[in-house]
Q: What sequence folds into this?
């Protein structure tokens, strides 16, 4: 399947990466990414690609693994030297489903896009990276987050260097993507970030008219989002209505051969696969 049959290559001319249109696009996206830590590209996928992907996902809902538990914002085992209610260890409730990479259609538009060298080069150019590779994770490389009604994803940082997502199906209500600016260096876990996190979470609980430290992003099906998920705290709010929220998550890394930790595999896919 050719890239021009998957994405709107007129609106986003990423196929000819020597063209003036491509260079202008990269210049604009780079600046926005540097400033906000996130950029969105509406109508990136063609309608036929969206339709085909959603149809395939909805035929495999029985294969979705549902997480119903808690985690800290770092998605790790915490620090036993600190109190359990310390922000380093504080547990937040998450309920979300995930369709693993090995259940995705290898011939579908989402996987063809994920494994495309042109698309990877485009991402590398936007984020000004020398190296970028698909995640070498047999279950978590490219997945779909499926949010049925009454589910949500609590505040967290991603393990992957950068987060690339595509909205495929919106819920009837809720499912808002909320995020901060880049508030830490990748991998930073220290007193400064603890203070910042306490401030964000406490304000978020107390503020009834919105938290000035948090932005809300609403995007339509087909929208591509590039996001510094390892440095920007983010969450998905509770879903309601009859339709699931379905978002493709395309994971890349700057270190070739990297995969998710066993803890993350177990938490979100229900199994540990080497």
A:
């Amino acid at each position: 399947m050719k890239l021009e049959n998957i994405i709107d290559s007129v609106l986003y001319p990423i196929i000819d990466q020597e063209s003036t249109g491509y260079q202008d696009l990269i210049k604009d996206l780079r600046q926005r990414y540097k400033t906000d830590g996130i950029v969105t590209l509406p109508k990136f996928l063609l309608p036929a690609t969206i339709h085909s992907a959603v149809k395939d996902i909805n035929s495999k809902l029985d294969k979705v693994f549902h997480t119903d538990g808690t985690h800290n914002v770092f998605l790790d085992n915490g620090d036993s030297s600190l109190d359990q209610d310390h922000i380093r260890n504080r547990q937040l409730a998450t309920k979300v489903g995930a369709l693993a990479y090995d259940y995705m259609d290898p011939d579908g538009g989402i996987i063809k896009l994920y494994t495309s060298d042109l698309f990877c080069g485009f991402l590398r150019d936007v984020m000004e990276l020398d190296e970028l590779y698909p995640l070498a994770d047999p279950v978590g490389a490219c997945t779909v987050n499926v949010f049925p009604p009454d589910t949500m994803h609590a505040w967290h940082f991603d393990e992957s260097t950068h987060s690339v997502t595509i909205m495929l199906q919106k819920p009837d209500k809720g499912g808002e993507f909320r995020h901060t600016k880049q508030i830490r260096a990748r991998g930073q876990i220290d007193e400064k970030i603890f203070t910042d996190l306490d401030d964000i979470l406490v304000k978020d609980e107390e503020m009834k008219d919105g938290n000035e430290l948090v932005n809300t992003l609403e995007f339509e099906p087909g929208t591509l989002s590039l996001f510094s998920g390892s440095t920007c705290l983010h969450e998905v709010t509770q879903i309601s209505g009859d339709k699931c929220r379905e978002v493709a998550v395309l994971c890349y890394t700057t270190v070739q051969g990297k995969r998710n930790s066993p803890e993350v595999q177990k938490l979100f896919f229900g199994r540990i696969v080497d």
About this structure: The chain has one domain: 3-269. The helical segments are 20-36, 47-58, 109-114, 117-127, 191-206, 262-269.
